[in-house]
Structure formats: C-alpha cells, structure tokens
Design brief:
Chain lengths: 198, 240
C-alpha cells in the first residue's frame, strides 16, 4: 500500500466512480436538497462527515466481530442499525459540544440515516477488501465526490429555474435531464485521473 | 368488499405507481435498469421484501411503540432483505453477483419504508400484503419498462437476446449512467404529457411524502421543497 494507491482510491471516489452521478447512490438528497448552493454544501459536508464516522465504526465491527464469529450474513442488519444509531449519536454530541456546527449541519443529519450512499460506501469498502486506512480514504473520496456533485448541480439548478421548458418537462423531468448532462461531464474526469498518476 | 381488495392491489400498479407516480425508489430505478434481467431481479427481490415487511409490520402494528417505530421497521425490513440475499446467493448466484450492493440497499429503498409508514401501520394484514404485492408489481413494471427502453436502444438486446436492427444501430450511452437519468426524465415527461391530455394535469415532482424523514427534508431545504412542489395546491394534496 503506497501513497499513490491511496491517492488513486481518493480520486476514484471523487471523480471516476462518483456515487451520485455514476453509481446512482444518494439520488434522493441529490434531487431534493440541491436547490440552493448553501444547502447543497451543508448536505454534502454532513454526508462526508457521517460516511467517515460510519466507516470508522463499521469496518472494525465487520473485521473483528462479524468475520471472526462467522456472522457475515448479518452485515446488512448490523450496518444499517449502526449507521442509524451513529447518526443519532453524532447529532447529540454535536449539539452538546459543538453547537455552532450543529446549527449548520443539524437539519441534514436525520436525513442521512436512510441515505443509501452511506450504507453503500460501508458495504463497498468491505466488498473491495480495503484495509482500515484505505476504507477511510475511500469514504473521504466518496463523500467529497458527493459534495462536488451536489455543489455542481446546485449551480446547474439555479440556471434551470430561470428557463421555461415545455409544460410536460417542468419540475422533475428537466432536472433529471440536466443531471444526465452533468453525469456525462464526469466521463471527462475518468481519463484525467488515469493519466495523472502514470 | 372483494372489489376493495382488488382496488388496493391495482392502485400500486397503476394509479399510485411507486416509481412513475409517487417517484419513490429512484436509486434502484436508475441503477438496475441497464438490463431487463437485472430489472426483473431487482423488481422481484423488492416485491418479496415489500410483501414480507408489510405483512409483519401490519401484524405487529399494535405492539410497536410509536416513538421507536422507524428503527423497528428498519430491523424488520433488513431481516427480509437478508433472507432474500441468502436465497438469491444460494439459488441464483449469477444474478446475485450482478446486483451487487444494490441488493443490500433494498433496506434503504424509500418505497418499502414509505409503505410501512403510509399503509402497513394503519391497515390489516391482508390489506397490507395486497398493498405490498401491488406496489411491488408496480415497481417491477416500471423497472421493466425502463430497462426495455435502455437495453433495446442502448445495447440492441432484450434480456440478452439480440434484437434485429437495434443490434446494428444502438446508442451505448443509454446503458451507461447518463442514459439512466435521461431515460427516466423522458419517461416521466411522457407520463406527464399523457396525463395532460387526459385533463388531470398533475405535475410530478421529486416526492418525499413517502419517506419517513420527509419532515426533516422539508426543514432542511427551508421550504424549498414546497417551491419544488409548485403549484401550491399540490403540496396540500400530498400532505392530505
């Protein structure tokens, strides 16, 4: 495991395998909370934060408890419960110790429990056979990728709002078509990352 | 009475189609529709989980305390997902590989949690089972419709069998990520157009009402959702 492989995992999560735009995980907040730049940033930071916490907790559980006692089949149940509990816990801790951060991220936290990107990244880290450090880096990458997608799309959304598409395209359809074009643009990044580290 | 039961079943398939009308469960709709077989697997798996979780949640509706109902629902749903995962791993290993992480992610599919919250906790076991079956079939139908468009136009095959003409002239981008957003957007636009002609214009927006965190969602977007739900009448409709 070299620094290069870690950077590759990080950039892969941010640009190549962007969870929202390439793997369709976390579409709900992507479409629901990307209307304003400030909301998109807040949601993105909150998701990144929870992803890091969730990975820090679920990776040891998987390795030292589930695999050790041959309980691998309980993965889905254990992970979702751990994430749900963790989100509650993080909210309480933030409220008590860092009220400023809680004020800015607090509203987004309850939404994250049922965010499939968080469960998805913790399960994928296990499936990909990453060690603890790689898992954390991968989660950071995926979280930053989510943030990037949210922020970029918030910019696109503000332009769409000023346009007048045909009636049947208004609302969700035009948003989805815009997402399609943003997703297409991420194909350009794939080769950048490939060539960057050669 | 019998008509009533039929209505519950049909509502999920047509009038309240979870994907095309309620716009729930967008993630699997976009991710698992690159091939008809994948869509079939996803649809059947989700239907089985939906029937099971709806039946159990409805049976336990008087026992589950209101304040901790969401965690309870998640445990019940996760149990059924695990059952389906193990069954599929044992009997359909190829499909299991193909679906990958999305199979486990049925746990956080808003259709399932949404039906528990909106239907199963207020209705009898039989009604809830029928609702689960109807919603599951509705999800399956929508997935198949989208997968058919994407696979035939994007790969020139249908359920891995080559389709003449399209085999030679296909648009590969449609089976890739951007195509998913595009086809889904156009499909919803077509549904809008049909409804527009019928008179009852009900514009589709990204709906959160089935999602248990909907209240937070509205809070998070500071009333932006209601703007998203324009016209204002629609919001009341959803709330009711």
């Amino acid at each position: 495991m070299t620094l290069k492989s870690l950077i590759l995992i990080l950039m892969g999560g941010v640009l190549v395998n962007n969870y929202v735009l390439q793997r369709f995980l976390g579409i709900c907040p992507f479409l629901g909370v990307s209307k304003k730049f400030s909301q998109a940033t807040g949601m993105g930071i909150a998701v990144t934060f929870v992803m890091l916490c969730a990975t820090a907790v679920t990776w040891p559980i998987q390795t030292y408890i589930l695999e050790k006692f041959n309980l691998g089949y309980l993965q889905t149940i254990v992970f979702i419960l751990v994430i749900a509990a963790l989100v509650q816990f993080v909210e309480l801790v933030l409220k008590r110790f860092i009220p400023a951060l809680h004020r800015s991220l607090g509203v987004y936290l309850p939404l994250i429990t049922t965010n499939c990107a968080v469960l998805g990244v913790t399960i994928n880290n296990i499936t990909d056979g990453y060690n603890f450090l790689e898992s954390m880096v991968s989660s950071l990458g995926v979280g930053l990728g989510f943030l990037l997608a949210m922020v970029l799309f918030a910019g696109v959304r503000s332009k769409i709002d000023n346009s007048a598409p045909p009636k049947c395209l208004q609302g969700l359809p035009v948003t989805l078509i815009a997402a399609s074009i943003v997703s297409l643009s991420f194909y350009g990044f794939a080769s950048v990352v490939e060539n960057l580290l050669k | 009475m019998k008509n009533n039961k039929l209505l519950i079943l049909l509502r999920g398939i047509i009038m309240e189609n979870p994907v095309l009308v309620l716009v729930l469960g967008t993630c699997p709709t976009l991710a698992q529709t690159t091939s008809v077989i994948g869509a079939l697997g996803m649809g059947v798996a989700a239907t089985l989980v939906l029937i099971g979780s709806n039946a159990v949640i409805s049976a336990l509706r008087k026992l589950i305390p209101d304040t901790v109902r969401i965690p309870c629902y998640i445990v019940i749903i996760a149990t059924f997902v695990t059952v389906v995962q193990l069954l599929m791993q044992a009997y359909l290993p190829a499909l299991y590989e193909m679906m990958g992480v999305y199979l486990a992610l049925i746990v956080v599919n808003c259709i399932i949690l949404g039906r528990a919250e909106m239907f199963a906790r207020k209705n009898t076991v039989l009604d809830s089972t029928l609702d689960g079956l109807g919603m599951g079939l509705g999800f399956l139908v929508a997935l198949l419709a989208m997968a058919t468009v994407r696979e035939v136009l994007g790969a020139g095959t249908f359920a891995s069998l080559p389709v003449p003409f399209f085999k030679t002239y296909h648009v590969p981008i449609l089976v890739q990520a951007p195509g998913g957003f595009l086809v889904f957007g156009i499909l919803i636009a077509v549904m809008n157009k049909i409804k527009e002609k019928e008179g009852g214009v009900k514009r589709k927006s990204f709906s959160c009402e089935g999602c248990p965190s909907a209240a937070h969602c509205k809070k998070a977007s500071c009333g932006e959702m209601s703007e998203f739900h324009t016209p204002a009448k629609e919001v009341n409709e959803h709330d009711a």
